[in-house]
Every structure is written in C-alpha cells, then in structure tokens.
Amino acid sequence: MTIGKAKFVHIRAKGFFLSGIQAKIVKEDNTFYVANLGRKGKTKVNGEEVDRCHIKNGDIISVGKTVFKFVEASRL
C-alpha cells in the first residue's frame, strides 16, 4: 500500500515537500512494516521519524500532515 501526493497512490497525503510516493506499508512473514521512500523526516510512527519500522495494531502513522491509525483487517 503506497502513501504520498501522487494521484495513483492508495492513500493521498497532504503536506509540504512530500514525494509522489512518500511511504509504503508492506507485509512480510505476517509482520507489517512502514518504509519511508521519499524525503527524510516526513514519515513517522508514534511521533518518531522512521526509515523502516515494524508496525502493529493501533500504531499512529503520519506522513506529512496526514495522520492515521494502523488497524489490521483481522482486528476489525
């Protein structure tokens, strides 16, 4: 799942100096990760800047000015 300013991403983010594809969420071996793909410092998990970070149910992800809570589909 991609996050950024481009029209073709899964989640459109707002903010200054964001890349077209700023970040992505991937699942590897039943573990989810968020990876920063764009400008440094624009992707955060629970308020901490990340390049790549394990995420779990309830974590707060912010990309630029866009903030959302990560919820695994099996937990809905």
Condensed summary:
By secondary structure, this protein is an all-beta fold. The chain has a single domain (2-75), classed as Tumour Suppressor Smad4 (Sandwich). It has strands at 2-4, 11-12, 23-28, 31-36, 43-45, 48-49, 52-55, 60-63, 66-69.
Can you describe what's shown?
By secondary structure, the protein is mostly beta strands. The chain has one domain: Tumour Suppressor Smad4. It is built from no helices and 9 strands. It has strands spanning 2-4, 11-12, 23-28, 31-36, 43-45, 48-49, 52-55, 60-63, 66-69. The strands form 2 sheets. It has a 5-stranded mixed β-sheet with strand order 2-1-3-4-7, with no helix packed on it. Strands 6-5-8-9 form a 4-stranded antiparallel β-sheet, with no helix packed on it. A hairpin with a 2-residue loop joins β8 and β9 (66-69). The radius of gyration is 11 Å and the shape is globular.
Task: List the topology elements.
Blueprint: E1 2-4, E2 11-12, E3 23-28, E4 31-36, E5 43-45, E6 48-49, E7 52-55, E8 60-63, E9 66-69
Parallel strand pairs: 1-2
Antiparallel strand pairs: 1-3, 3-4, 4-7, 5-6, 5-8, 8-9
